[in-house]
Amino acid sequence: MNTGGDQGGSSVSDEEWERFLRESADGVPDAPKEASARARLVARRLREEPAPPEGWRTHTPARRPRRPKVRYLVGLLASVALLAVALDPGRVTGWFGDDAGAGGPLAAESERPDQAPPIEPARLPTLDEPFKGSPAVRWESGTAGITVPAARATGWMSKGQVKDALDRSRDFLAASSLDPAVLLGAHPAKAIALINPHQKDVQDFLATAFRAPGEENDPVMLFSRFDEAHTRVVGDVVKTRGRISYREGERGALQVTADVTYVYPVTRAAADGGGDEVARTIVRRETVLNWDDPAKVITERGTFSLVSYKVHTTNGGCGAPTGYLVPLYADERPAGADGGPEVDPYDRSTPVTDGRADGECGKATRS
After folding, report:
1. Beta strand 146-147 with 239-248: parallel, antiparallel or unpaired?
2. Total domains, the chain
3. Position 97 in a domain
4. Interatomic CA distance for residues 34 and 12, integer angstroms
5. What separation in angstroms does the CA of 48 have from each of 34, 36, 251?
6. Model pTM?
7. Is 272 contained in some domain?
8. Is the backbone of residue 277 left (phi > 0), alpha (psi -120 to 50) or beta?
9. Burial class of residue 232 in the structure, from the number of CB atoms within 10 Å of its CB (0-12 exposed, 13-18 middle, 19+ buried)
10. What secondary structure letter does DSSP report for 333?
11. How many CB atoms lie under 10 A from the CB of residue 79?
12. What pLDDT band is residue 283 in, cutting at 50, 70 and 90?
């Protein structure tokens, strides 16, 4: 039966009509929906109007640089630095201060080195940096640069006695080569008090050396002294490098050997015009001492017998002995090469030989 009446000359079943009504009410799934006339009008107006101005507090962050460009810049700077080092290493070293690149103090010297220290960039010392341009810039100061070995019972001495003798041996080195008063020319009474007063040949040497110094009786063989009327020691630091060793000597004595290099920065005294030029006097001494058994050798408690001594000085004077170290300055040095052999005063890889470098006696390769 047709209950819907005539629909434009066609008829549908009741089931189709019911389905049409349901889909009309619910909508067909996935069917596109057309915007309303009002929505289309608003959209067209927005497209035609200009964008609003940016607010004054609005901030658009700058784009971060790309990392590959940063790495390229770092690489470029590194290349420039390497080129500068290759062209002028001394100047580049100066960018970082006097000790830059040199590292900290050297490890203590426990045995003779097998080679000389490396050559430093040519840099003149100053009143503020008197060790500039010298290997000594990395050395310790005073007795800290003198290695003292561990004590063990040796000869007639117990371990404790050996330790005491080693300490006193170092005290002698300090009193003879580091004492500020002695460096300014004072009599080295403390050092002499440690020498066996019954050792006649040494006592004769000491009596003559300070009264009438000569080739065979020159006090600078054992003591570092400058004439304060002409020389001023720069600062209060003396750089040192060396070691003490020991063994059993004759008649059971404790034989102590000290091999130490001392570096003294000096300048002209005011009486000689003063100035800011700094020179260095370098002294290497090898001193052998016997701490004798009082039951076998006539000695005094707390003193040693002097067995031998050798000294090599650089810029300490080579003229007639005066009892003092006599440094030369730039305008006093001979223009030509000297007749003696060239010597590196910082080379501790060879034994000490008697002699002096610079002046009339030879030429030091560096100071």
Report:
1. parallel
2. 1
3. no
4. 28
5. 22, 19, 118
6. 0.71
7. yes
8. beta
9. middle
10. S
11. 10
12. very high
Look at the alpha carbons of 73, 74, 77, 78 in this order and tell me if their dihedral is positive or negative: negative
Please give the Cα distance from 56 to 63 (Å, whole number).
20
Q: Residue 292 domain-assigned? A: yes
SS3 60: coil
Q: Lowest-pLDDT range, 113-117, 151-155, 280-284, 354-358? A: 354-358
CA distance 298 to 317: 37
pLDDT in tens, 31-60: 444 455 555 555 565 555 554 444 333 333
Structural domain that includes position 205: 113-364
Instruction: Locate all alpha helices (DSSP H) within the chain, ordered by sequence.
Output: 14-26, 37-48, 67-87, 89-95, 159-177, 180-183, 189-192, 200-211
Are the C-beta atoms of 195 and 306 separated by less than 8 Å?
yes
Length of the chain: 367
Which range, 50-54, 71-75, 267-271, 304-308, has the best average confidence (pLDDT)?
304-308
Q: Tokens 């819907």 — which residue? A: 4
Residue 92 belongs to a domain: no
Residue 29: what are its φ and ψ, rounded to 5°? -55, 140
Residue 338 Cα to chain centre, angstroms = 33
How far does Cα 346 stand from its chain's mean position?
Answer: 16
Q: How far apart are CA 358 and CA 364, in angstroms?
A: 6
Q: Could you give the CA distance from residue 157 to residue 311 in angstroms, rounded to a whole number?
A: 29
Inter-residue contact 358 to 312 (CB < 8 Å): no
Residue 72 Cα distances to 64, 84, 85, 257, 348, angstroms: 15, 19, 20, 59, 47
Give the pLDDT band of residue 120 (cuts 50, 70, 90): confident
